[in-house]
Amino acid sequence: MSHILKDSLVLTPDVIDLGRSPLAGKVDAPTYVLGAFNPGLTRLPNGNLLLMVRVAEALRDPVWDGHVHAIRWSDAGYVLDAWPLDDVDISDPRTFRMMSAGWKVMGLTSLSWLLPVEMSPDGLDVVAFHYDRAITPSRSAQCYGVEDPRISRVDDRWFMTTCSVSPERQCSTIYSSRNALDWRYEGIALDHQNKDMLIFEGLIDGHYWAQTRPLGDVYFAYPPGSEWRAGPSINLALSPDARFWKPHEKPGIRPHAATLATARMGGGAPPILTEEGWLTLWHGVEPNESVGTYRTYWSLLDRDDPARVIRTDHKALIEPDADLIGPLEHQVYVRDVVFTTGIVDAGDHYIVASGEADLACRITHIDKRRFREA
Asked: Record keywords: Transmembrane helix included (predicted)?
């Protein structure tokens, strides 16, 4: 793709030091890094970039004594739970499914925590790992992990949204910071299975805005001949203080009937303001025989009314890259996935952070002309 100036994996599972993991010495079984991926991205006050990396730490051998085991945080520390093998489907390396629950009930083979990694200003080289500032589960709503951070800077504050996972709820939680390294938990923002919450990098009419993506098992059909397809879509919410959020009346970005690539979609990088409007990168999923093919797309939203799409493109901006992931073939467990999670302005180009194959962190430099030429 001619608009891609640089493209590489910058951080892989093997560089994570589990001896410095927040779980080190606290889990009574050997663990390994299933993936180091889906990083939040921002520029630090010193000019370097920060990748807030999701580290999925899993049991090396989860099956013993006729049970499958998983890690759970509790007030008393990290514990191992066990489920009988004859009641679970363990065909997916990322999850297992309870067969006798009566509806879809899942367990996780890993517990995720967040590692701040300081990068060079171009995002291509590691400067420092900040293990002492790792974000870990700290309450019951996060007992199965903290996942998929997205970082936004609004004026002199940074906000980080995460997905917190537990039997109680799968919810969007928010942290805030004055320096993008020391984070304070602000609470639950959106409730059950409302994922991919992205805070706009700027206020609109004095309000904070965010993209959201609620999930469900039932969607109502659009009228015959509609340009839209029923299914998950990117909605909007607004807030006076970035803590308490109200859904916006108008829909946001919806799956288009003209392409299968948006059979499932959700937010990617937090929207940033350009001369023409809010640039938002999002993921679309085309069904295939496994988890689907994840690609990155983009839209330009009106600066005063982000429910109005000014321009978009059905052609993917970033594709999964088998060549990039080739050297890690022995660790690959899913394919055809690029999941974009951050963007920063770098003058004549954008620096974009993504997770590749739910395994590694990918940095892509994209020429700004790509968005003007569409």
From this structure: no
Angstrom distance (rounded) from CA 187 to CA 192: 14
| pLDDT tens, residue by residue, 105-158 | 989 989 999 999 999 999 999 999 999 999 999 999 999 999 999 999 999 999
Q: Which of 354, 356, 11 is nearest to 364 (CA)?
A: 354
Amino acid identity for residue 236 in this structure: L
At a CB cut-off of 8 Å and minimum separation 6, what does 158 contact? 42, 151, 152, 176, 177, 178, 179, 180
Instruction: Tell me which residue has tokens 């493209």.
Output: 7
Helix/strand/coil (H, E, C) string of 125-180?
CEEEECHHHCECCCCHHHCCEEEEEEEEEECCEEEEEEEEECCCCEEEEEEEECCC
Question: Do you know the residue count of the chain?
Answer: 374
> Residue 132 is encoded by which pair of tokens?
């002492």
What's at 201, amino acid-wise? E
Please state whether the predicted TM-score (pTM) of the whole model is above 0.85: yes
φ/ψ of residue 156, rounded to 5: -105, 20
CB atoms near residue 167 (< 10 Å)? 12
Among residues 195, 204, 156, the alpha carbon closest in space to that of 301 is found at: 204
Q: Which CATH class is domain 4-373?
A: mainly beta
